[in-house]
Every structure is written in structure tokens, then in C-alpha cells.
């Protein structure tokens, strides 16, 4: 958490959105740290909150760099639960999405976990280039309009890169 402080504050100040640090914990993601948005409208989340791997941007990032057999072990069935009308509901479709995540370096949750809530996450790498955590931003849909997504994705990747550098320097 201490290593994430500077990255999360930077990201919150850049985006004015709620920022999280999360890790893989069993078959879910879990928030280890949060920096609250200073906006009047906030997304309700908390340290210790568990997240679905297939419907959250943070979960997608945590999955994307795992070996395929590990993904299959975490998501043993082809059909995945739907939380909204936009949730990815098959492992095959999720794996295609994870390929996009790896190529672009970040994940997007387009109202897949909660209606009207969008999130962007990017990976935190250790010195072995393994993903050990993810950093994300969350906001209601109008706080993250389509034209701002590239700018926000770059800010999230920069914050995750800052933390990766700190980890590699230890």
C-alpha cells in the first residue's frame, strides 16, 4: 500500500476519479488501497472489496498476463455470470478481450460490472515482468466520456508504471 500511495495520488489528481490498487486473491480481485475522488458524485467502493475477474477492468488486467491454464482454473466453466446487459458472459469472449488488454496495455469495464459505472485499469509489474497488482480508476459513465478514455488510459498506465518502477527498485 505504501508503494502505491504516490501513484494513486498522482492518478486521482490527474483524473479526479476514485483510484484503486488491487491484487488477485484466490478467484477474485480485491482492493488493497483506495484514493477517493473529490467529486460530488462518487462510486461506492472500499478497501477489501472483492471484484469479479471477468467483469471488472482490474480483474481483466489481473487475468490478462496469466498462463491460459491458470485462467481456465480460475474460470472453469464456459459460461460466466452476467451482472449487467454488457457483461462478457463466455470464457471464449473474455479470452478475446484479454488479448486486446495485453496488446493495448490496459483494460476497460464499460458498465460490465455495475450499470452506469466505467473503469480503466493497468498492470503493475515486478522485476520478473510478472503482473503482481493493478491500478484502476472508476467513475459513473458521464465522468468518463468516450473522448476522455485515451487520456485516462494513459494516466492509469503512467501511474501503474510509476509503481512498477518502485517495485523494481526494491
What proportion strand? Answer: 15-25%
Distance between the termini: 14 Å
The outline comes out as globular
The residue fraction in helices comes out at 25-40%
Individual helix count: 5
- The overall pLDDT, averaged over residues, is 94
**Structural class of the helices, strands and pairings?**
alpha+beta
Order of helices and strands: HEEEHHHEEEH
Query: Major sheet, described briefly?
Result: 6 strands, antiparallel
The low-confidence parts are: none
Q: Strand order of the main beta sheet, please?
A: 3-2-1-6-5-4
Got a strand count?
6
Radius of gyration: 15 Å
Task: Please tell me about this protein's structure.
With 170 residues, the chain is of the alpha+beta class. The protein is 35% helix and 24% strand. The protein contains five helices and six strands. It has helices at 5-15, 57-64, 68-74, 91-104, 149-168; strands at residues 18-25, 28-35, 50-51, 107-110, 117-125, 131-140. Strands 3-2-1-6-5-4 form a six-stranded antiparallel sheet, sandwiched between helices. Helix 1 runs antiparallel to helix 5. It is globular. The chain starts with a helix and ends with a helix. The mean pLDDT is 94.
Amino acid at each position: 500500500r505504501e508503494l502505491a500511495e504516490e501513484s494513486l495520488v498522482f492518478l486521482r489528481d490527474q483524473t479526479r476519479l476514485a483510484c484503486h490498487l488491487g491484487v488477485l486473491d484466490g478467484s477474485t480481485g480485491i482492493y488493497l488501497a483506495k484514493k477517493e475522488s473529490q467529486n460530488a458524485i462518487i462510486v461506492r467502493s472500499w478497501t477489501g472489496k472483492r471484484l469479479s475477474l471477468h467483469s471488472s477492468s482490474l480483474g481483466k488486467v489481473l487475468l490478462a498476463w496469466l498462463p491460459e491454464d491458470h485462467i481456465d482454473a480460475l474460470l472453469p466453466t464456459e459460461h460466466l455470470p452476467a451482472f449487467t446487459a454488457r457483461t462478457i458472459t463466455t470464457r471464449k469472449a473474455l479470452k478475446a478481450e484479454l488479448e486486446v488488454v495485453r496488446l493495448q496495455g490496459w483494460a476497460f469495464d464499460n458498465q460490465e460490472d455495475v450499470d452506469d459505472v466505467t473503469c480503466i485499469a493497468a498492470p503493475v509489474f515486478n522485476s520478473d515482468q510478472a503482473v503482481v497488482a493493478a491500478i484502476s480508476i472508476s467513475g459513473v459513465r458521464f465522468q468518463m466520456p468516450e473522448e476522455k478514455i485515451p487520456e485516462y488510459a494513459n494516466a492509469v498506465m503512467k501511474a501503474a508504471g510509476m509503481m512498477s518502477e518502485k517495485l523494481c527498485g526494491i
